[in-house]
Structure formats: C-alpha cells, structure tokens
Amino acid sequence: MSGLDAILSNPAYHDYLAILKGARNGFVYGVKVRFPHALIMAILFGRGDWQTRLRTIYRATKQHALNLAKFVSLYKTLLLVQKKLNGGKERSFDTFIAGLIGGYVVFGDRNAVNEQIVLYVCSRVVASFLSRAKSPYNMSSTASSGVRPLPPDATQFSIFAAVCWGAVMWLFNERGETIQPGMFNSMTYLYRDSEHWNNLRTLLWHNK
User: Which of 100, 134, 157, 172 has a Cα-to-Cα distance from 143 of 20 to 30 A?
Assistant: First the structure.
C-alpha cells in the first residue's frame, strides 16, 4: 500500500489522477442532485405504475451522473492537453475552450436532462454580468393552455450549450466572485476538490 500511496502523492501523476477524481465527483454529485429531484417529480407528476416511474428515475439519474462525470473528466483532460501544448503554462482562455468543447460534446445532445442543466448554467452566466453588491449574500403557474411548447432547434441548442459551458468555466476560473454561491460551491466540489487527495480512500471513496 505504501507504493500506491507514493504514486497517489507523486506530483508527476497529479494531473492524471485529478481527471479520475473529477469523474468520480461528477458522478456522485449528479446522483445527489438528480435522484431526489427525479423521485419527487415521479411522485407528484409521474405517469404509469411504479415500475415505470422507477425506470424513469433511474434513467434520469444515470444520465445526469454520467454526463457530469464525462464533462468534468473531458474538461480536465482538455485543460491538461492545452497546458502541455503551451509548454506547461496555463492561459486564461484555456478554461473557455475546454468548457466550449466539453459542453458541445457532452451536453450538446438535446434532451430533457441536458436542457435543464444547460438552462441552469446559462442563467448563472447571465446573472454574472449584473453589478455586484457591496455586501456578500446572506446565507408556477398551473393554468392550462392550448399552446404546446416546442423544443429548441437541435443545432442551435448544441451551439448554445457549448457557449454556456465555455462561458461558465471561464467565469469560474477568472471571475469566481460573480458566480451564484450555490453554483460556485457545486463547481468547487467538481473541479477544485478533485485536485486534492491524501490516499486511495480520498481519491475514490470520500471527497475529503
């Protein structure tokens, strides 16, 4: 085990292990966020028997968790590639490029889960342009209608997803103070906590 601990603490492997832990944190966070939401939605608005509802909960939770795991690992991989191509130096726009590509590849497929995630990210990006207060934070209609909402154009949604993710990753890295606190904490868990571990337990089983 001492040999394994030596590998885990070796700076030469840090960036590669951070990708692994990032995928782990993305998957765990996706389950934590999506499962209770999907469960409540199934109880309140679900259709069909409970076997059908449980399958829906499982599919939504699996997709959310896997997509976050894929995005975090792809994002960190792209940052590492750019860093190596730039002689070991990080640049400000690397985060935007990595988020842009990751957003397109992982969240560019238009479906209900991805739409919710991208719109959540977009709202935080837009809100970041509002002027900041001088003091820190203190920690629907159900009317029926004959109108049927139409999904966004698939191609435009893919581009929209890419730009949102590129923008939010750049903001988190360069202007973190403008990010809404809840999302900032989520992103810290996904992208910064995954840079640190002490042993195999804190690499794969527990975050800290």
Answer: 157
